[in-house]
Design a protein that fits this description.
The protein is of the alpha/beta class and 345 residues long. The protein contains 11 helices and 11 strands. The protein has 2 domains: 5-101 and 298-318, Rossmann fold (3-Layer(aba) Sandwich), CATH 3.40.50.720; 103-290, Rossmann fold (3-Layer(aba) Sandwich). It has a 6-stranded parallel beta sheet with strand order 7-6-8-9-10-11, with helices on both faces. The structure holds 1,4-dihydronicotinamide adenine dinucleotide (NAI).
């Protein structure tokens, strides 16, 4: 039997390194730097699967093209799947994902951003490199005793909560599906906005919570609130965020994700003029830290991503039960009957 062939889009050096190591020549993987779009779909001609990441846009047209070319599987090498039209894919092409690769990586990055921001490490680092040892303007505040509002108490949110508790912070949380018996103090979103000194986002992006941070919700927040977003950019309306910072309502923002990141993040634009004025304004602010969707990027996570993605592909083509299949009709494994040859359809 011919080797299963996979077109791997948006490939970075670190992806290739971990997949080459994990694959050990099992499958033929064609690595492409370009993202998967209507225009680049044809690169998947003759392939059995495509492997994609957070900023590949898997819309109806892309799905139709893949199906026409007889590609049978979309293997997401990430957890979130808001970039895939899953409802349209149902019945046409299967989707698998990596539900967890290192929740620690993301939660630890969220705390790293918070500490960097409030203790002004990003400023101090640049100062001392220039032999400027002045402390003026570097005053921070203790995390101990502060209230952190955590939105989304799944794998990452809970680890972030544990880290915060280690710092002696008071934790309150909002989740659409609160975890009973978890010992977490759940509150309404309104209460969370009003009581939190720091707010950290760890929920998926859905139509319902897009721009949950907007002019109206910012108005409810405490003056000086610190926002940390390692989840998905569009949870925050970036223009309202700029306004909130300009009005001194928001004390600091730590952003690992950004609504319009897909054409910018992961690329080197250091010799270019970036067109996005909102992002440029945010980056120019001394109390904003932006990282380029980097929270997942640890050795452990990359190894888990490669291993799980290749296992998902093996499971699919060997017709086994796959717990990592994405299906809008199967919100959880328990509710999925998987009665169609052990796959979602
Ligand atoms: P998870 O599925 O374990 O937890 C998500 C939690 O959010 C669940 O408890 C769920 O009930 C809750 N939730 C669902 N809809 C909600 C809503 N409308 N409002 C509030 N809560 C809601 O997911 P996990 O692994 O903890 O990941 C969380 C998010 O982190 C992902 O959706 C993804 O967007 C983001 N992420 C970011 C990465 C990065 O590198 N920056 C890497 C991995 C994930």
């Amino acid at each position: 039997m011919d080797k299963i062939r996979i077109a791997f889009f948006d490939a970075k050096d670190y992806d290739k390194a971990s997949f080459i190591k994990s694959n050990e020549d099992r499958y033929q993987i064609d690595y492409y730097e370009t993202r998967l779009t209507e225009d680049t779909c044809r690169l998947a001609e003759g392939c059995d699967a495509v492997c994609v990441f957070v900023n590949d846009d898997i819309n109806k047209e892309v799905i139709d093209r893949l199906v026409e070319m007889k590609v049978r599987l979309i293997a997401l090498r990430c957890a979130g799947y808001n970039n895939v039209d899953v409802a349209y894919a149902y019945g046409r092409i299967h989707i698998v994902r990596v539900p967890a690769y290192s929740p620690y990586a993301v939660a630890e990055h969220a705390m790293a951003l918070l500490l960097t921001s409030i203790r002004r490490i990003h400023k101090a680092y640049i100062r001392t490199r220039d032999f400027n040892f002045s402390l003026n303007g570097l005053t921070g505040f203790d995390l101990h005793g502060k209230t952190v509002g955590v939105i989304g108490t799944g794998k990452i949110g809970r680890i972030f909560i544990d880290i915060c508790r280690g710092f002696g912070m008071n934790v309150i949380a909002y989740d659409k599906f609160p975890a009973e018996g978890s010992g977490i103090e759940y509150v309404s979103l309104d209460e969370l906005w009003e009581r939190s000194d720091i707010i950290s986002f760890h929920c998926p992006l859905t139509d319902e919570n897009r721009h949950m941070v907007n002019g109206e919700t910012i108005a409810r927040m405490k003056k000086g609130v610190v926002l940390i977003n390692t989840s998905r950019g569009a949870l925050i309306d970036a223009e309202s965020l700029v306004e909130g910072i300009k009005q001194r309502k928001i004390g600091a923002a730590c952003l690992d994700v950004y609504e319009e990141e897909s054409n910018i993040f992961f690329h080197d634009y250091s010799n270019h003029i970036v067109d996005d004025d909102t992002l440029a304004r945010l980056i120019s602010m001394p109390n904003v830290i932006v990282t380029s969707h980097q929270a997942f990027l640890t050795e452990e996570a990359l190894t888990n991503i490669a291993d799980t993605t290749l296992d998902n592909i093996a499971g699919f083509f060997e017709n086994e039960y796959s717990i990592n299949e994405v299906c809008y009709k199967c919100p959880s494994v328990n509710e999925c009957k998987q009665d169609h040859k052990k796959k979602c359809f």
